[in-house]
């Protein structure tokens, strides 16, 4: 990558951080129209010449060090592109693709045979380690809404696999295509090991499409208002504020209410050599939708720490813009 230039209510309730009336103007007009919002490449626009300077400097240094970077931020109210770095590129996004699963699950809740209280049981074939808490619990059956809440709160891998088995990966892919997403997808189940016949990544996505998706969720335009609100409600439970959101100063375990005028909904993805985040941040002065993904050689701890510092620098600029 070239060095960047300086140019709602779900199972968990209403989250006040995403007011559909305050969302980006360019997210409307249908799923296919969003790609005309801004040209590809790297640029910055702002009212202040110093806006996003820290983030761009950090991303530029990372790019020089061999990190692949893709990022985008848009004003939530106007749709204006605040900055972009290779935002058209489809990058590995680890667990961020689980948002697409949550959309399909939320849409299915309108079906009489797949309601909030529909019980699903885990099986040995669903078993997977890493993120999530269900693998550590004794209960073997949970309701659909509870499983979705676990995915939103802790990116629960076991709950993800059970939900994928229930709705079908093909249905998730079909829904994704219907939304007009061509560079963003959930590719597979969560696996402890990926073999030669498995998808190389859990999910991929472009920053441009991901920011459109979250803005449209905020506006209640993904499937319908009820579906969008359910997804936002589940995502508002997310406890991972270790990446971009680490700059916001919010309580990782309790940030569904306004805190110093800030409201935030996000989803993160992390695996070896990948760190990714997409979210919405609202503050007293403005609101933003953002997406940042990085791929890097994860053989040295200092490289990973530099990536985390870069994501936090972007977060600090976003915070300055909204607050």
Q: Which features does this protein show?
A:
single chain, 323 residues, alpha+beta, Beta-lactamase, six-stranded antiparallel beta sheet, three-stranded antiparallel beta sheet, 8 helices, 31% helix, globular, disordered N terminus
Description of the structure:
The chain is an alpha+beta fold and 323 residues long. The protein has one domain (9-322): DD-peptidase/beta-lactamase superfamily (Beta-lactamase). The chain has eight helices and 13 strands. The protein has helices at residues 53-64, 98-108, 144-154, 157-167, 169-178, 207-218, 225-235, 301-322, and strands at residues 9-10, 13-14, 42-44, 68-75, 81-85, 91-92, 119-121, 141-143, 185-186, 203-205, 263-271, 274-282, 287-295. The strands form four sheets. The protein has a six-stranded antiparallel beta sheet, with helices on both faces. Strands 6-10-9 form a three-stranded antiparallel beta sheet. Strand 4 and strand 5 form a beta hairpin. Helix 2 (98-108) packs across helix 5, helix 3 (144-154) packs across helix 4 (157-167) and helix 3 crosses helix 7. The chain is globular. The chain starts with 8 loop residues before the first strand and ends with a helix.
């Amino acid at each position: 990558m070239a060095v960047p230039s300086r140019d709602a209510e779900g199972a968990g309730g209403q989250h006040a951080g995403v007011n559909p009336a305050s969302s980006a103007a360019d997210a409307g007009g249908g799923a296919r129209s969003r790609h005309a919002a801004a040209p590809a490449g790297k640029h910055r626009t702002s009212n202040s010449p110093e806006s996003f300077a820290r983030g761009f400097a950090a991303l530029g240094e990372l790019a020089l060090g061999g990190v692949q970077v893709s990022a985008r931020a848009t004003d939530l109210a106007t749709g204006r592109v605040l900055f972009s770095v290779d935002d058209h590129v489809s990058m590995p996004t680890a667990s961020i693709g689980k948002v697409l699963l949550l959309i399909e699950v939320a849409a299915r809740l309108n079906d009489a045979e797949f309601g909030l209280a529909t019980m699903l049981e885990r099986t040995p074939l669903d078993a997977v380690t890493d993120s999530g808490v269900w693998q550590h619990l004794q209960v073997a059956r949970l309701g659909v809404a509870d499983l979705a809440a676990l995915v939103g709160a802790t990116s629960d891998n076991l709950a993800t696999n059970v939900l994928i088995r229930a709705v079908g990966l093909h249905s998730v892919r079909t829904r994704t295509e219907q939304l007009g997403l061509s560079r963003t997808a959930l590719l597979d189940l969560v696996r402890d090991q990926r073999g030669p016949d498995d998808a190389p990544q859990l999910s991929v996505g472009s920053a441009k499409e991901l920011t459109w998706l979250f803005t449209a969720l905020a506006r209640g335009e993904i499937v319908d208002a009820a579906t969008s609100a359910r997804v936002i409600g589940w995502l508002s439970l997310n406890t991972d504020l270790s990446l971009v959101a680490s700059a916001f100063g919010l309580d990782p375990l309790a940030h569904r209410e306004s805190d110093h005028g800030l409201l935030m909904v996000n989803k993160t993805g992390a695996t070896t050599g990948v760190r990714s985040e997409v979210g919405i941040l609202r503050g007293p002065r403005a609101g933003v939708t953002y997406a940042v993904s990085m791929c890097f050689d994860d053989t040295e701890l200092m490289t990973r720490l530099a990536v985390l510092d870069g994501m936090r620098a972007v977060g600090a600029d976003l915070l300055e813009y909204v607050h």
